[in-house]
Amino acid sequence: MNTSSDAERPKIGRREANRRATEEAILNAAETVFAEAGFGGATMQLIADLAGLPKANLHYYFASKEELYRRVVERIFQIWLEAAQAMDDAPGPAEGIGAYIDAKMEISRRYPNGSKVWASEVMHGAPVIQDYLETTLRDWTAGRAAVIQGWIDAGKMAPTDPQHLLYMLWAATQHYADFGHQIEVLNGGPLSDADWRAARESVKQIILRGIGVAI
């Protein structure tokens, strides 16, 4: 026989699922609005309208526009962090950097607006997330640079500056999100699945060959 608490568990699960779904809808809408209008041009009303929610509901989840904006930025960065795990656990640059490029290209395909929000924020001097750049991003970059330096020291790739290699990886992969419209114009339309595969392999081959890694 179920106790009252047992009977309530499915309802708690549904509430949590609904809460997460609503938060996801808000973040997706916020990414779109911030990407198109920037932080200054975006309003909580625009975001609420795009998410299909009353503005009061939006404020229930996020008290201010700045809080929501930081969450959007942190979400895309967290997704990028997860992609970098391929480098941390890989035996060498062919596997690590190759998998990182694969993951970053897929992120550019699936989360173009998040990447655009990050790029716009940084290009404007990071007025909202400067502290984030000086702490989380700086620490993350140092850690990945150390992994790359370890491969260099082991003779697994040509000597290069690890930080500049990371900058190149970011530029090459995030370009497909940040300048997606330009790519679509030059491509004669949106990239197909085959186009994305070809782009991913081209970026991977050019970078890995450039650092002396056999593929």
Automatic annotation (TrEMBL):
Which controlled-vocabulary keywords does the entry list? DNA-binding
DNA-binding annotation, residue ranges on this chain: 43-62
What the entry lists under Gene3D superfamilies is as follows:
Homeodomain-like, Tetracycline Repressor, domain 2
Mention one GO molecular function: transcription cis-regulatory region binding
Q: Which Pfam families match?
A: TetR_C_3, TetR_N
The biological processes this protein is annotated with in GO are: negative regulation of DNA-templated transcription
PROSITE patterns listed in its UniProt record: HTH_TETR_2
Q: Where is the HTH tetR-type domain?
A: 20-80
- Which protein are we looking at? TetR family transcriptional regulator
Q: Which organism is it from?
A: Paracoccus kondratievae
